[in-house]
Amino acid sequence: MSMLPCFKKYMVAICAIAVALPVIASMVWPLMTGQLISATFGGMLLQFALFFGGMLLGYWIFSARADRVVDGYVYLYDQDCNPESFISNAGSVAANVQFPCNPTVAWFMGIYAQACLDAGKPEVAARIEDGLRQSLKSAKKPADACGILVNLIPLVEKTGTLSDVRSLIEEGLSQCADDPSGQAAQRRQYLQSQLEIVNARQDGNYSELIKLDEHVMSMPSFPMRIRVEYAWDAASAAFRSDDVQVEEKCLSFVLSNGGGLALVSQAKKRMSALQHH
Fold it and tell me: How far apart are CA 82 and CA 269, in angstroms?
């Protein structure tokens, strides 16, 4: 599924391609046959084929382009840790989203909402969360519901309670339990990992939480923003367990890589307190 519906200008271009091909054919056909294209059954059939073929071709071309554009926007936040730049560039795309949405759009909007939290726009994030919850209720297939859930959970981790997060995780595991696909297996793995983190937080098991967080922090395959967020969580757990060495290491990671994320200012204050301790 593509982000294409969120790009109205691309939809117009697809329609233009679909119309242009039959028009061109109607001009060439008389030169080749001496007849109007609409005067023969074969000519009319060709026009229909060109129209629908043009629609499919245009959709394929611009769908790929839309996805590349969106990936570039998300990179600004997920890798550069620059929420303001992401919002500035992707705001028009987000504004065109209508809820309920599919899992692909939920992925983008979940990230956009988190950027809004970083940029001090909680009211926008709240509206998006409501839209994602509406999308979840409207999903007709378990796979779609699970796809929306895995994109809603990271947002609710920042806006809700541990009980809220646990409830969504358990719902996600239920939705994808009987799905044998590789995508469902990846989602189950993610959900299980989040459940382990929730359990460690609720139990006050800070050593386990630090271990889980540091694992993500150390993984180059994860987006830098995610690694920074887990480093901050590990630093917070280390603070509660009086592990100064781990806290300082994780804070250093946040300060070196966190860019414009909101948690960087908190990390600076905590590092300053450590250095003056």
Answer: 20
Q: What is the C-alpha separation between 177 and 185, in angstroms, rounded?
A: 9
Question: Six-digit token pair at 198?
Answer: 């929730």
pTM of the model: 0.82
Residue-level pLDDT, tens digit, the chain, 277 residues: 565 465 566 666 656 665 566 566 566 656 666 656 555 555 566 566 656 666 676 666 666 677 788 899 999 999 999 999 999 999 999 998 999 999 999 999 999 999 999 999 999 999 999 999 999 999 999 999 999 999 999 999 999 999 999 999 999 999 999 899 999 999 999 999 999 999 999 999 999 999 999 999 999 999 999 999 999 999 999 999 999 999 999 999 999 999 999 999 999 999 999 988 6
List the structure tokens of 25: 């054919």
- How big is the chain, counted in residues? 277
Q: Is 181 left (phi over 0), alpha (psi -120 to 50) or beta?
A: beta
Tokens 């001496």 — which residue? 34
- Distance between CA atoms of 218 and 225, rounded to whole angstroms? 12
Q: Which residue has the tokens 């084929």?
A: 49
Cβ-based neighbours of 115, under 8 Å, separated by 6 or more: 77, 83, 86, 87
Non-local (6+) Cβ contacts of 118 within 8 A are 83, 260, 261, 262
State the residue for tokens 């540091």: 214
> Can you count the helices (H) and strands (E) in the chain?
12, 0
Rounded-to-integer distance, Cα 238 and Cα 274, Å: 12
Residues in CB range of 112: below 8 A, 6 or more apart: 86, 87, 90, 94, 128
